[in-house]
Amino acid sequence: MRQRALWRPLALGGFVAFMTVPLVATALFSVSTRWDRTLWPEGFTLAWWARVTGRAAFRDTLVNSLLVSLATVLGAALLVTPAVYASRLRAPWARPWIELLAIVPFGLPGVVLALSLIRFYGQVPVPLVNTPAILVAAYLVLTLPFMHRSVANALDAIDVRTLTEAAQSLGAGAGRALIHVVLPNVATGVVNGGLLVFSTAFAEFTLANLLVGSRFKTFPIYLVEFTRFDARQASALAVISFAIAWAASLVLMWAAGRSGAGREAVTMR
């Protein structure tokens, strides 16, 4: 019994160490004056953080990445949620095809996806090539599996047909049933998918570099530029990137928690 109970904290401790040690080491390296002769940093300074955040390009690229990531989250939620809902309610025959389409992006290399989007949108009358819009479109394709799986699992956990029929019996149409009845019950799945979409889009480099490059420089492109000549400033940017993704996750979870608490209060009344 003692041996059986011992492996659990060991496994948990190993997982926590595996996830946190690289981040802690990166953060220490970003504030170290020198760290190449001993096991521990020889001194600490915030000069590298001041240099990398004092540039105008830092603010511009950060805003660009935030805007593109938030637009991707919004677009993914608006595209995936109604499609999955319709497949569960009115078109069950389409469910296998949606599942298939949702896993295709996993098998597409970034270079192939970028070249395909350039060729496709190059034939569209609307000018999208070399603009942030094509980057959002690429991120929507890339992050489709994350949003789809989260929303699909949330919908499978509830009785969608019964909820919809109950709303329709009270005079609600399909759209109102989705927004006012079904969506509040799957908000957790949408939020979880949004977290995955945001973190993936915010940290993506390959598509951003190939599709827009310096014309609409994103935060990962700014970070990679520093890896070529100053690893300590690049480490500071990596820590900032992680902190932003973490903060965004907390904000989304807080918002989902408040909406859930509000629905419970209304229900109790």
Written description of the protein model:
With 269 residues, this protein is mainly alpha-helical. The chain folds into two domains: 1-45, no CATH class; 56-268, Orthogonal Bundle (MetI-like fold), CATH 1.10.3720. The chain contains twelve helices and no strands. It has helices spanning 2-30, 47-53, 56-89, 95-103, 110-121, 132-156, 160-169, 174-185, 187-203, 206-211, 219-227, 231-268. α2 (47-53) packs across α12 and α3 crosses α6. The longest helix has 38 residues, at 231-268. 27% of the residues are buried.
What's the gist of this structure?
The protein is mainly alpha-helical.
Write the layout of secondary structure elements.
Layout: H1 2-30, H2 47-53, H3 56-89, H4 95-103, H5 110-121, H6 132-156, H7 160-169, H8 174-185, H9 187-203, H10 206-211, H11 219-227, H12 231-268
Task: Give short descriptive properties of this protein.
single chain, 269 residues, mainly alpha, MetI-like fold, 2 domains, 12 helices, 0% strand, globular
The 3D shape can be described as globular
Q: Major sheet, described briefly?
A: none
Chain oligomer state: single chain
CATH topology of the largest domain: MetI-like fold
How large a portion of the residues is in β-strands, by DSSP E? under 5%
Number of helices: 12
CATH architecture title of the largest domain: Orthogonal Bundle
User: From N to C, what is the helix and strand string?
Assistant: HHHHHHHHHHHH
Helix content: over 70%
The structural class is: mainly alpha
Assigned CATH superfamily of the largest domain: MetI-like
- Kindly state the number of beta strands: 0
**Rg on CA atoms, Å:** 23 Å
Number of domains: 2
Ends apart, CA distance between termini: 49 Å
